[in-house]
Amino acid sequence: MPETKKQLLHLVFGGELSSVDAADFADLSKLDIVGIYPDYKTAYDAWKQAAQGTVDSAQTRYFIVHLHRLLDPDATGA
């Protein structure tokens, strides 16, 4: 049986912040959920594309959340 690569799920999302000094969103109903990805590299590529698309908006930020760390805090991985 072939070895299955462990899923290291990552969420990419963002939106307009209420201030450039904090990670508080101006309007939670307008969050942009880019997607959930099976590894950090894929999530990073999606984050980079979303972030570059909003480069003219200083108050818009995108984040990568390591979902696998929330689902299994004792596990190791990126």
Account of the 3D structure:
The protein has helices at 40-52, 67-71; strands spanning 10-16, 32-37, 60-66. With 78 residues, it is an alpha+beta fold. Strands 2-1-3 form a three-stranded antiparallel beta sheet. It is elongated. The two termini are 25 Å apart. 9% of the residues are buried.
Question: Main traits of this protein?
Answer:
three-stranded antiparallel sheet; 23% helix; 26% strand; alpha+beta; single chain; 78 residues
How would you summarize this macromolecular structure in one to three sentences?
By secondary structure, the chain is of the alpha+beta class.
H-E string? EEHEH
Spans of at least 5 consecutive residues whose pLDDT stays below 50 are none
Mean pLDDT reading: 90
Q: Specify the overall morphology.
A: elongated
Radius of gyration: 15 Å
Euclidean distance between termini CA atoms: 25 Å
Q: Got a strand count?
A: 3
Order of strands, widest sheet: 2-1-3
* Classification by helices and strands: alpha+beta
Set out the fold topology:
Layout: E1 10-16, E2 32-37, H1 40-52, E3 60-66, H2 67-71
Antiparallel strand pairs: 1-2, 1-3
